[in-house]
Amino acid sequence: PNLLAYTESCAAIGNLMWNWRMLAATAEARFADVLERTLYNGINSGMSIDGTLYCYRNPLETHGPEETRGSLTDKIRNPWYSTTCCPPNLERTFAALPGYVYSTSREGLWVHLYHSNTLSWHLDDGTPVGFTQTTQYPWQPKVEMTINPASAKEFTLFLRIPEWSRNTSVTVNGQPSSVAPSPGEYLALRRAWRRGDRIELTLDLRTRVVESNRRLQSNLGRVAVERGPLVYCLEGLDQPTVPSIFETVLLLAPEPDESFRPEFRSDQFSGVTVLHHTGAVYATPLAEAPLYSLIEKGGRRNLSETGLTLIPYFAFANRAETSMQVWMPYVWR
């Protein structure tokens, strides 16, 4: 269940390590996709934004002081636990991140993750090569890259195209790539690379609404919201006009991605993109609702529209104790 999910920070790190080894063994982009999702969400959520608190577990739902749930109203972020495996495990993972961005093989250079950085390394045959990325990913879709081999050299540059990026564009020195990008695969660009060659990658950051496997009964009739590699959630603090986030539903349009409005907030959580969406709240407060009632045709059940704001999951519980949920009930407009 989302409320009781253990989802330990160390387990997320183990997940990253396992998928890194599977990626190295198979060169299949699906393992890098899981690695990235785990990094941005299950691992990144483990440490508070200011670096002073951490999560031993990272549930997908919490009940804050505004909810009466007895022993389930535990504080998620704390400065100390009696079992202290998570803080050093998180810190060594963050320190090791540069080693997860690139790989080399006999064919050439592989780019697994996108982040502003500079690489100074060599190909497997010893040819020195430099590589730079300039980007505001995951908030913005464009990644600008420059490759600098010591001398003109033919090899393959492999760019990971995330499975969620359904509409991706790639240019080399301003010209469209001769090979079409495919979601969930590495794009292989083979040519004689020269110093200063430029590659521009534009990913599809449209918001996505996803459902889980039907065997997960806790999530039947619920959806989660993602944008790029990030999972989003509702926190009670961002819904001041709603008595409880557990009395809200998402109103989904036939094209759900078009109904979410992204907004970058530089002053919140050191800079994040939040999502605005139209939801609905039950007209009858939960405390006043009868034990049983007839469902209305169409499933709208006496709902009134309200604005909802979603934040990246990794930022949950960074301001105050409050309710939170990732998997949200929905109805169609």
Q: Write the element-wise H/E pattern from the N-terminal end onward.
A: HHEEEHHEEEEEEEEEEEEEEEEEEE
Number of helices: 4
Instruction: State the end-to-end distance.
Output: 28 Å
Q: Taking all residues together, what is the mean pLDDT?
A: 92
Tally of strands? 22
Brief sketch in words of this structure:
This protein has 333 residues and is an alpha+beta fold. 14% of the residues lie in helices and 35% in strands.
3D architecture notes:
This protein has 333 residues and is α+β, with helices and mostly antiparallel strands. Helix content is 14%, strand content 35%. It contains four helices and 22 strands. It has helices at 9-26, 29-43, 86-96, 98-101, and strands spanning 54-55, 61-62, 77-78, 102-104, 108-111, 117-122, 128-135, 142-149, 153-161, 169-172, 175-176, 185-193, 197-202, 208-210, 222-227, 230-235, 248-252, 261-265, 272-282, 303-312, 324-325, 328-332. The strands form four sheets. A six-stranded mixed β-barrel has the order 15-16-20-19-17-22. A six-stranded antiparallel β-sheet has the order 6-7-8-13-10-11, with no helix packed on it. It is globular and about 75 Å long.
Topology:
Elements: H1 9-26, H2 29-43, E1 54-55, E2 61-62, E3 77-78, H3 86-96, H4 98-101, E4 102-104, E5 108-111, E6 117-122, E7 128-135, E8 142-149, E9 153-161, E10 169-172, E11 175-176, E12 185-193, E13 197-202, E14 208-210, E15 222-227, E16 230-235, E17 248-252, E18 261-265, E19 272-282, E20 303-312, E21 324-325, E22 328-332
Helix pairs in contact: 1-2
Task: List the defining traits of the structure above.
333 residues, 4 helices, 6-stranded antiparallel beta sheet, 22 strands, alpha+beta, 6-stranded mixed barrel, 14% helix
